[in-house]
Write a structure and sequence with these properties.
It is a single chain. By secondary structure, the chain is mainly β. The chain is built from eleven helices and 58 strands. The strands form 13 sheets. Strands 52, 53, 54, 55, 56, 57 and 58 form a seven-stranded antiparallel β-sheet that branches. It starts with a helix and ends with a strand. The N terminus is likely disordered.
């Protein structure tokens, strides 16, 4: 009864609000001005390797930031020959050219007009890049197509002159993929031996398999599937021995006499020695296209099929309405009206070519109300419609009463969809007053959806400076001007401040529901270690609500908290003790928080079936009648003029982009965090200029920086000063590091001020195995020990690490395992630098 009353109140409230919104909508005079989304019109390009298409490129009608366009890379031989194809889709071209640029796009190296050979609805071009490239260095290659209507479309890839045996690697990848549809062939050709089957593999679902899965699971288990198209091949990274390759394609299967379809993405990381091909990593994601018919609905559940359980899903307060995304489309279900609507999709029955199957877009469901209205955003590459050929954020409103979708605002973005998605993963929220809040480029923005005006809420914050609640409705950050936290309720737009108090400093740690968790540390306890890393020991942990009511306090005499993690209703605390000037680890502790975290009323569940294995369903909050369900495809509202709002970024801390199997995994301000994640995901980390700072690549068997020799510390020059002087000498500089240290500068300041043109990387917390990447490329790594002394890591072989130790004045070898343990005991406090060239 109580639940019914709550749902009734929620329905009445949202119904009144919906009437207001619909009234405004109709009064715009465009309620009858609707049309289907316009079809795709831009050509598609691809590179040809021995007649096979790779690195398919979509066209951009705006000039993108080249440094942020890293989706693919193509190798060329010493003749620098490039072959490419343009799929015209009925378009006529007025011209075609290419630009060769530095990887950051700032330097134009070549700009050349092209001609091609027309073959039906294709144009094939073949040309040689000029002898202006450095072998082994990456460049940006941009094709520019001028269409007959005057538009220009730009197509981006990277290119490198190198013999990295790409053809052999692609042959293995495509053969492996073909064999996954034939279990006997998979075994006969020995692909099962390439797997690393173990207990780490999940063999219960076809939605995701990996290198640890069984051969049976990789070959689709009991399900008989058929590949419907040749795979689209994308080379994401390439190195002398290794390559990372993505394949994407649709497959079909039969169910209850009907043909169903699944979108598939495969990731391969391979290593080829010239004799043997190794499979270093393999992942396959499968996402079934939603069955848009009453067959997907029963009285108690909506069946989604073979999909991952992590999906974008949001329901109304009363649970009557919910929205979800699946395989590139967005849907809503209204239990009160028995309506199932496809709110947005680039592909449909009349638009199903490779352009609309582009996976470069995603959704964020911002709001769903009890009357069936849904506010959502589409982000990424726009493959058709009014913003075709752009990347950005399109915020839309679905009116259930009128069955139309209206664009509220469009925010252009000049980098890849991957980077955009990494930012929106952190914050995207809209409240009932049509206030939109987004995180882009390390800044939080407010956009009024009615007047399209935008403003900065806060800029230049790094990951440790802010916290966001799970539902995105609460935000807290450390003020740059005052010693306080700013706590913001995005529902109301109001802010409140939380002071650290005299003699204290303050840090936001997270949220439990809508309640803020923060810590307070005495300024006298806060210190920098020798490297310059901040040690922030908090004597009190406090949980409070937005009104400032303290709900819980944690404090223990002599013990300090340095960080925490949150799992459901438990807060796990990392703790230390301070003994003199030394910080030592203490046992972890927990805070149990009993405030109820609300659960969804429509539950996403997994059901095991005989043929499809694990199938995902949404258990409905109230019973449905499948016979009465109405399937809707709303049209778009037409309007005059533009609803575009450009967000002009301010200066913010440098960011590092981590590229994993299927694109950008995260955008981070900490180089150490970026390197750790890139290592974990067997990927790469690049800075904002597109330059690598790290690759998870195979190291040489051994390497040593021979130009660095032993040098001893003495009474006037500490081991740390000797290491710094040695780095400067190696780079052709003369500096008095002892003097710089004596006047109070820390290591990071000294290196940043004197290594001009280099990016200094604080890699504290990275393991020895991670930082060996740098001496492998002739870059020394500074390791600062707990007692303030230092050594340089200048080389390695399979059993040892080579160190320059000013304490002994020698270069010597230390066993790899012993060195790992030694550096771990000393906090893995590494610092190195990067010059952007390998």
């Amino acid at each position: 009864m109580k639940k019914a009353i709550i749902k009734g109140i929620a329905f009445l409230t949202t119904f009144v609000l919906a009437l207001v919104v619909i009234s405004l909508f109709v009064n715009k005079g465009n309620a009858d001005m609707t049309a289907p989304m316009s079809p795709a019109s831009l050509p598609v390009m691809a590179v040809l390797k021995n007649g096979t298409e790779i690195n398919q490129m979509s066209g951009y009608t705006i000039q993108m930031d080249t440094a942020g366009m890293r989706e693919s890379i193509t190798t060329v031989d010493a003749a620098r020959q490039v072959d490419a194809v343009v799929h015209l889709y009925g378009q006529e071209l007025e011209g075609i050219s290419y630009e060769l640029r530095s990887i950051d796009g700032s330097r134009l190296i070549e700009n050349t007009e092209l001609s091609g050979e027309r073959q039906e609805d294709e144009l094939r071009v073949s040309f040689r890049l000029k002898d202006l490239m450095e072998e082994g260095e990456e460049y940006s290659l941009v094709f520019v197509l001028t269409l007959e209507d005057g538009r220009q479309a730009r197509y981006y890839t990277r290119v490198i002159e190198a013999d990295y045996q790409l053809e052999e690697k692609l042959d293995f990848v495509t053969s492996f993929s073909e064999a996954t549809f034939d279990a006997e062939r998979f075994l006969e050709e020995g692909f099962n031996k390439k797997l690393e089957t173990s207990a780490d593999g999940d063999n219960s679902t076809l939605a995701r398999v990996d290198i640890h899965s069984t051969a049976s699971q990789v070959t689709w288990g009991p399900l008989k599937v058929t590949r419907k198209e040749e795979p689209r091949i994308r080379v994401r990274e390439i190195a002398p021995q290794t390559a990372s390759v993505e394949l994407s394609y649709p497959v079909s299967f039969e169910e209850d006499g009907k043909t169903r379809y699944i979108a598939v993405r495969e990731y391969y990381r391979v290593r080829y020695t010239g004799e043997t091909m190794y499979l270093l990593d393999y992942e396959r994601e499968a996402e079934q296209y939603f069955t848009e018919s009453a067959a997907s609905l029963s009285e108690s559940a909506l069946t989604l099929g073979i999909v991952g359980e992590e999906m974008d899903f949001k329901e109304s307060d009363g649970g009557t309405v919910f929205a979800f995304s699946q395989a590139g489309a967005l849907y809503s279900y209204n239990g009160a009206d028995a309506r199932l609507a496809r709110l947005f999709s680039f592909y449909d029955g009349d638009n199903s070519d490779m352009r609309t199957q582009n996976s470069g877009h995603g959704f964020r469901i911002l709001q769903a109300d009890e009357t069936g209205n849904v506010t959502f955003l589409v982000y990424g590459y726009m493959s058709r419609g009014r913003h075709e050929g752009t990347c950005g954020v399109q915020v839309c409103y679905y009116s259930n009463a009128l069955n139309v979708v209206e664009e509220l605002v469009f925010i252009p973005f000049d980098r890849s969809a991957d980077i955009l998605g990494a930012d929106l993963d952190r914050l995207s929220y809209v409240n009932g007053k049509n206030d939109l809040y987004l995180m882009l480029g390390g800044s939080v923005w407010h956009v009024n959806l009615e007047n399209k005006q935008s403003s900065l809420v806060v800029s230049g914050i790094s990951e440790e400076d802010y916290q966001i609640s799970k539902d995105n409705s609460m935000l807290a950050w450390k003020s740059a001007e005052k010693n306080e936290l700013v706590f913001m309720d995005l529902v109301s737009g109001e802010q409140t401040q939380i002071s650290a108090g005299d003699g204290n400093d303050i840090r936001a740690l997270g949220f439990m529901g809508k309640d803020l968790i923060y810590g307070v540390a005495a300024k006298e306890d806060i210190r920098e270690d020798t490297v310059g890393n901040l040690v922030f020991p908090m004597h009190s942990i406090i949980i409070c609500d937005f009104e400032g009511n303290v709900l819980k306090t944690y404090a223990q005499e002599g013990v300090f908290v340095t960080g925490c993690s949150i799992a459901e209703n438990q807060i796990n605390l990392e703790r230390v003790r301070i003994e003199g000037n030394t910080v030592v680890a203490a046992e972890a502790d927990q805070i149990l928080y009993n405030d109820e975290i609300p659960e969804s009323q429509n539950q996403i569940t997994a059901v095991v079936t005989e043929e499809l294995e694990t199938v995902v369903r949404i258990l409905l909050d109230s019973q449905a009648d499948p016979k009465k369900v109405k399937l809707l495809t709303p049209k778009e509202v037409l309007f005059e003029g533009s609803r575009e709002t450009e967000l002009i970024p301010e200066d913010s801390p440098g960011r590092y982009y981590v590229y994993g199997p299927f694109g950008v995994e995260a955008a981070l301000s900490s180089p150490a965090a970026a390197v750790r994640l890139a290592y974990e995901r067997a990927g790469t980390a690049a800075d904002e200029n597109g330059e690598y700072i790290f690759k998870r690549d195979r190291l040489h068997t051994s390497n040593q920086i021979m130009a660095i020799e032993g040098r001893a510390a003495d009474a006037q020059t500490s081991s740390l000063a000797v290491c710094l002087d040695t780095i400067f000498q190696y780079e052709g500089l003369v500096r008095d590091s002892a003097y710089l240290l004596e006047r109070g500068e820390d290591v990071l300041e000294i290196l940043e001020e004197n290594l001009e043109g280099r990016t200094v990387l604080n890699l504290q917390g990275c393991s020895l195995d991670m930082v060996l990447y740098y001496p492998d490329r002739e870059i020394p790594v500074l390791a600062v020990l707990q007692d303030g002394s230092a050594v340089l890591v200048i080389g390695f072989n399979e059993q040892n690490v080579v160190l320059m130790d000013p304490g002994t004045g020698t270069v010597y070898k230390k066993g790899m395992n012993d060195a790992r343990s030694w550096f771990e005991e000393n906090g893995n406090r590494f610092i190195t630098y990067w010059g952007g060239e390998e």
